[in-house]
Write a structure and sequence with these properties.
The complex is a heterodimer of chains A (81) and B (363). Chain A has 81 residues and is an all-alpha fold. Chain A has four helices and no strands. Classes of the chains: A mainly alpha (81), B alpha/beta (363). Chain B: Pfam families: LuxE.
């Protein structure tokens, strides 16, 4: 599975939404499914998918799918097509 | 109506200051500016606030934090104090009020909610670090119900969940110990740094009491307990902070314990207890103690009514609130723990005030 696929999978599992809803523009608190409770589930999904540990700064900064990619790239996870 | 740019800029400037390392004379002008802008914003956007203040914005700002106007905490129960349109509300917080008391009405928009999280993270990182620790929550899972209206208790648990991983609830809905869950948590993490969080009364009466009576023994020598929600019930049982810590240590081996003082009306900018037993105002908030009869500012060392100020709320006029709690400021910038800012203690609630601690809603 590519990193992009893993990311889509984590978002769709974590938030309980369809894969096609997972676009870079998708932003925290703009859909009912991505609230603060789901946010913690999403974080756990991302940690599992990529086998990383995110700290509290990462959680606060992860305000969109695009931002998630940026944060994950700090953990040496690349999303180049 | 969205947040005025001027305020957002001032808030961002405040956030560049370290929470406990900014001397009072450096903090005061920056926080005062934020609070003045919030006052102006709420006068412009909340008609009830404007009526209470009996003012239009005049351009005359307060020149000290203590001369800023304030609202009595009770007003959040009696009035719908809101500085945003209904369509901008994404969560309404209700303070403790499950026992027939009137709950407070605290409307949050995304900006305010996001600021609450940011400030809470900034503050708590100073006490527990940036790493998220395995977390034992001294409550039951039903206390956090997703969506819609939110109890202060659920919001508190959820806010603190940010700092944990592998969240484990120590109690069952009937408030008995979830022995299996606790055992699993113990076997996985006993030697590691872990985070525990619970409301003070529940930690005492439903966790420590039950641990003592049960066969299970746990030891988390590297654990940290954060607890909050008021001492009123424990004071009635003559339980002091020292006794609380001693019993916790006996039953769990935890030595790092931080009480914190906060309220639903000002989520985020909490006051955390240091190693010397004093609560500290971070750079994002301030505390003032007033004479309960004249409302004049009390000198340090004298007990009075606590007024809390927070840089956070723009969706409701809760940046300056006179509480019904009694407390004493002990000094500024010179606590033995070396943290800067105002440090104080809370001694209880004004007689005749409602019982309203988060801990106190559990029968």
């Amino acid at each position: 599975m590519s990193n992009q696929q893993k990311l889509t999978e984590a978002f769709s599992q974590g938030l309980g939404i369809e894969s096609k809803q997972v676009t870079d523009a998708l932003t925290y608190n703009t859909i009912p499914e991505w609230d603060s409770t789901a946010h913690m589930i999403l974080i756990a999904e991302l940690e599992n998918q990529f086998n990383i540990m995110l700290d509290t700064d990462d959680i606060i900064d992860m305000s969109s799918v695009a931002k998630a990619k940026e944060i994950l790239s700090k953990h040496d996870i690349s999303f180049d097509a | 109506m969205s947040v005025p740019t001027q305020y957002q800029d001032a808030f961002d400037a405040l956030m560049t200051l370290p929470p406990y390392d900014t001397p009072y004379n450096e903090k005061h002008p920056v926080l005062l500016n934020v609070l003045n802008l919030l006052h102006e914003h709420h006068v412009n956007t909340c008609s009830e606030y404007r009526n209470i203040m009996q003012t239009e914005v005049t351009g005359r700002d307060a020149d000290t934090i203590s001369s800023l106007p304030y609202l009595a905490v009770r007003l959040f129960k009696l009035l719908r104090l809101q500085s945003i349109g209904d369509d901008a509300i994404f969560r309404v917080l209700n303070s403790s009020g499950t026992t027939g008391q009137v709950p407070a009405y605290i409307p949050l928009d995304r900006d305010t909610s996001s600021r609450q999280s940011k400030v809470l993270v900034r503050i708590m990182q100073e006490w527990i670090g940036k790493q998220r620790l395995p977390m034992l929550i001294i409550d039951h899972p039903d206390a956090v119900k997703p969506g819609g209206q939110f109890s202060a208790r659920g919001a508190g648990i959820q806010g603190l969940s940010f700092f944990g991983r592998d969240h484990t609830y120590a109690l069952k809905p009937d408030m008995s110990l979830d022995i299996e869950a606790i055992k699993q948590f113990r076997d996985k993490y006993s030697d590691q740094p872990v985070l525990m969080f619970g409301f003070t009364f529940m930690v005492w009466a439903h966790f420590l009491d039950s641990l003592e009576k049960s066969d299970i023994s746990i030891s988390f020598p590297n654990g940290i307990l954060l607890h909050s929600g008021g001492w009123k019930k424990l004071e009635a049982q003559k339980v002091s902070n020292d006794a609380f810590k001693a019993r916790l240590h006996t039953l769990t081996a935890i030595t790092k314990v931080h009480n914190f003082y906060g309220m639903a009306e000002q989520v985020g900018s909490v006051f955390v207890e240091c190693e010397h037993g004093f609560l500290h105002a971070p750079v994002q908030s301030e505390i003032i103690v007033r004479d309960p009869f004249t409302l004049a500012v009390q000198p340090h060392g004298r007990q009075g009514l606590i007024q809390v100020m927070s840089a956070i709320p723009s969706s409701y006029p809760g940046h300056s609130i006179l509480t019904e709690d009694l407390g004493t400021i002990h000094g500024i910038d010179d606590c033995l723990c070396t943290r800067k800012g105002t440090y104080f203690s809370v001694s209880g609630r004004l007689p005749k005030a409602e019982v309203r601690g988060c801990s106190d809603t559990q029968k």
